[in-house]
Amino acid sequence: MQGTFRFSFGPWNIHEGADPFGPEVRRSISFNEKLAAYKKMGFDGVQFHDDDAVPNLNDKSASEIIKEAGQVKKTLDEHGLVAEFVAPRMWFDPHTIDGGYTNNCADCRKYAIERSKRTIDIAKALGTRNIVLWLAREGTYIRESKDPVLATQRIADALQTMLDYDQDIRVMIEAKPNEPMDHTYIPTIGHAIAMGLLTNAPARVGCLIETAHALLANLSPSDEMGFALAHKKLWSVHLNDQNSLKFDQDLTFGAVDPRRALNQVRVLDQHGFGNDGEWVGLDVKVMRTQKEGADLKHLDYSRKVFLRLLAISRSLDEAKIAKLVAASDYEELNWYILDAMLKG
Length: 344
Ligand code: XLS
Ligand code: MG
Prior knowledge:
Layout: E1 7-9, H1 31-40, E2 45-49, H2 50-53, H3 62-79, E3 82-87, H4 106-126, E4 130-134, E5 139-140, H5 148-165, E6 170-174, E7 183-184, H6 189-195, E8 205-210, H7 211-216, H8 221-230, E9 234-239, H9 258-270, E10 279-282, H10 297-315, H11 318-326, H12 330-343
Parallel strand pairs: 1-2, 1-10, 2-3, 4-6, 6-8, 8-9, 9-10
Antiparallel strand pairs: 5-7
């Protein structure tokens, strides 16, 4: 059953180019200026961190946060855009140096829970029920610093608290095996889906798969997507690419391995991704060498690569593929796919 594809990205994907080894290389672009770029490139959805929608959260009451998020919703409406999800940015604030939910300090864990509730408030004000948890610092630099059983339970308890706080929201866990932590809890989609079983509302716990995160776990992104689709738990994706096991590169989709990208497009399309409102999300960073005015191409081309690969996948003769599979003639099948891709 063919998919239905709408595209989204977060405002952090338009950035000034600073990296751990050097400063900004481009001017800052305002949130409103970023929003103006979405529709022009064929994007209809906006991903948010909590503080993308409401900056300086720590200094504001719940009612002030809700009011400010309501203004952002009005701005989205003016641009004809929709909020896809809101994610608590649980990796910047000093309370989260040792993690949020798994922090060894009780006050910091309390901060993380309160911040997660504000994220839900913001999501409701923006008109989305989707909460994304990238568990950035829920892990350890040395194993002895946290008890993995207790840490897992604390993440489950945080999930339960969020699910109790609002009966409509659903949580998508964005698994990643490492970085910034040496080892991160909930490192793959299997772990993410299993976390729902530790709550009393597993139907409201699903996942978001990022290409690079699956690759950092040395797994096949399309097989991870297949696993989540089989469980009906793939509620969003972050498409990008990654050049071997190193830091999370967030490269343009298909930039390293277009065949691997085809496999992702194919599994999404052949299993109706998007037909229940799921978004094709990107999480991509532009090369630091791009000049101002040429610094949106990673978004534009990631979406165009997706559409080109979708056309290739849909042009394939499925009866011919079935015949080659039945004959176990996988070399012929391999050539057939490569030939289709090389013809483009
Ligand atoms: C990491 C996550 C993060 C988003 C969601 O890859 O996608 O970049 O901000 O929290
Ligand atoms: Mg991501």
